[in-house]
Amino acid sequence: MIRLAVLAIAVALATPATGADRLRVGTWNLEWMMTPETFDALAGNCFGKDQRADGHDRSYPCDLIPRGRWSAKDLARLRDFADEADLDVIALQEIDGRDVAKRIFPQYVFCFTSRHNVQNVGFAVRRGIPHRCDRDYRPLGLDDYVRRGADLTLYPGTSRAIRLLAVHLKAACNSDPLNDPRDACRRLQQQVPILEDWIDRRARAGNAFAVIGDFNRRFDLERETARDAEGRNVAIWPEINDGEPSGAELMNPGVEHGAVGCGNGFGARQPIDYFVLGRKLSRALVADSYKVWDYPKGQRWPDHCLLTIELEPERLDDL
């Protein structure tokens, strides 16, 4: 895609920053992450094939038993891995909330949405980093049929303020056109203008912003055009990256990397997890900082890789 190539060049032209000035930002889908106590307590309330839980239900699919249970040893191993990654801010998906998050990130504070379902979305923020947990972006949840957006402001009230939205969009339509009649594609299609509205409002306000997380979408397979002949949306990336309004020109720092693999048994796959940076925040991106973290061999790990980038907030002072 021509637009993706242009954004890749912009990444390459970003200037280096020193380690002390950098903010390491990650995204991590933790695959039905619950404490073992919660998993066991909810096992009797699981649901079968072709059923689903809405946003108010505390339940999970029966086929997760017992394979989906994360043990106390698993949580300790994930905690050690996260500690090694030395993250400052991380967008989290498929995680129950604070109770399990604090066992993986004990030195962090959290901004989670208030959705009751065990699949939640939120942020872990290193203790001491100035931040504000903003209101849930509820419209993205389609009346809680799917997951809400978690909204966070770093360094609020300063020239370095950064607005971040963590997302986990509707699954099961990662490559088909969004006008496909299947329910999964229809639901994802409904989320696109809601996501674009958040982006456009941030751009109009002159914010340094990014949307981070699991988009459940192969941007590399999308068409150049956003809509079909009848005006129906068929793709996410060309729709949200239309350059309107000014400041809404978007950057995907991982586009040059291509397929990602991290030792979790799935091999190298084209990503569906992204950092989507607005024009202003893209100027704070540290060159070549996009990283896929390798999991140590021989243990169970989440089905998504941990991805990180680094930012230099100081660059925002003069913008």
Name the descriptors.
globular, disordered N terminus, 319 residues
Describe the structure.
The chain has 319 residues and is α+β, with helices and mostly antiparallel strands. It has one domain (2-318): Deoxyribonuclease I, Chain A. It has helices spanning 2-13, 36-42, 72-85, 98-104, 183-204, 237-240, 279-282, and strands spanning 23-33, 89-95, 108-112, 120-126, 131-133, 150-154, 162-168, 208-214, 273-277, 291-293, 306-311. The strands form two sheets. Strands 3-4-2-1-11-10 form a six-stranded mixed β-sheet, with helices on one face. The chain is globular.
Oligomer: single chain
Outline the low-pLDDT stretches: 1-19
* Fourth-level CATH superfamily: Endonuclease/exonuclease/phosphatase
Quick one: overall form?
globular
Count of domain modules: 1
Record field, number of beta strands: 11
Helix content estimate: 10-25%
| CATH class label | Alpha Beta
- What Rg is obtained from the alpha carbons, in whole angstroms? 19 Å
> What is the level-2 CATH architecture name?
4-Layer Sandwich
Beta-strand content bin = 15-25%
Spatial ordering of strands, largest sheet: 3-4-2-1-11-10
Classify the secondary structure makeup into a structural class: alpha+beta
CATH topology: Deoxyribonuclease I, Chain A
Task: Please report the number of helical segments.
Answer: 7
Q: Strand count, sense and closure of the main sheet?
A: 6 strands, mixed
Short synopsis of the structure:
The chain is α+β, with helices and mostly antiparallel strands and 319 residues long. It has a single domain (2-318), classed as Deoxyribonuclease I, Chain A (4-Layer Sandwich). It has seven helices and eleven strands.
